Amino acid sequence: MSTYIAVTDPTDPRLADYTDLTDVALRRRREPAEGLFMAEGATVIRRAVAAGYPLRSVFASARWAGELDDVTASSGAPVYVADDAVLEAVTGFRVHRGALAAMGRKSLPTVDEVLALANRVVVIEDVVNHTNVGAIFRSVAGLGFDAVLLSPTCADPLYRRSVRVSMGSVFSVPYARFDAWDSARDLVHRAGLTVVALTPDPDVMPLAELPEGQRARCALVLGTEGDGLAEPTLASADVRARIPMGNGVDSLNVAAAAAVACYAIVHG
């Protein structure tokens, strides 16, 4: 049976995992250091547990606490139950999805381990917006790519907003983070993948012209939201390609570009 614990005090130390969830800078420091992350909503929590992430506890409103009984009963994790006012006082926002779960992190595989099992990967350079990272993972999961590789400064895929936007895809898509960005091209080449840099440069080939042989085993490299890929990254790519644009628009948001590019590479 699940262990339900009613809480009425927002300063209850048992709720420490859930405090100040809207303080992005604080959570970026705390969560990886403490080996935890937040899953929000019953669907995402179930996907995290199914992917093997350990459940530390659940913090839920009374009307949602029983919704996760099948998950919490088997884990033995405590379920802290509070009214909406206490939930908001602790977390810093109105918890519309009714339940939050503090989850334990798993050790990440190495880049080489991820590449050994992948034919198509998305490589993200310096994308720091958590919403975009989550959306990219969802596109990778749904559009036929195998994995995601992150530059050292990319946003954390397990940050609450990334997890929510991905609808839990961050749990099913293998990913790893490069220790040093200047070694990325060599590691990808060693795995036999063609490095395809996506750029809005109108002088490079449209993505649709990428030869079939390069589509089958490739690493699609996407750049930061503002400036795109750094020049050294572009220079080190095997191929530069673009998504043709119209009506005076030079490029798409990086998450939208990832979706279009993944579809174009897989389906031609």
User: How far apart lie the N and C ends?
Assistant: 51 Å
Could you give a short account of the major beta sheet?
A: 7 strands, parallel
Structural class: alpha/beta
Strand arrangement in the largest pleated sheet: 8-7-6-11-9-12-10
Radius of gyration: 20 Å
Number of helices: 13
E-strand count: 12
Unreliably modeled segments: none
User: What fraction of residues sit in β-strands?
Assistant: 15-25%
* Main CATH class of the largest domain: Alpha Beta
By CATH, the topology of the largest domain is Alpha/beta knot
What is the chain-wise order of helices and strands?
A: EHEHEHHEHEHEHEHHEHEEHEHEH
CATH superfamily of the largest domain: SPOUT methyltransferase, trefoil knot domain
Sum up the overall morphology in one term. Answer: elongated
User: Percent range for helical residues?
Assistant: 25-40%
The tally of domains stands at: 2
Looking at the overall shape, the CATH architecture of the largest domain is: 3-Layer(aba) Sandwich
Overall average pLDDT: 94
SSE layout:
Blueprint: E1 3-6, H1 24-34, E2 36-40, H2 42-50, E3 55-61, H3 62-65, H4 69-75, E4 78-82, H5 84-91, E5 99-104, H6 111-115, E6 120-124, H7 130-142, E7 147-150, H8 160-166, H9 169-172, E8 175-177, H10 184-190, E9 194-198, E10 205-206, H11 212-216, E11 218-222, H12 231-236, E12 239-242, H13 254-267
Parallel strand pairs: 1-4, 3-4, 6-7, 6-11, 7-8, 9-11, 9-12, 10-12
Antiparallel strand pairs: 2-5, 3-5
Helix pairs in contact: 7-8, 7-13
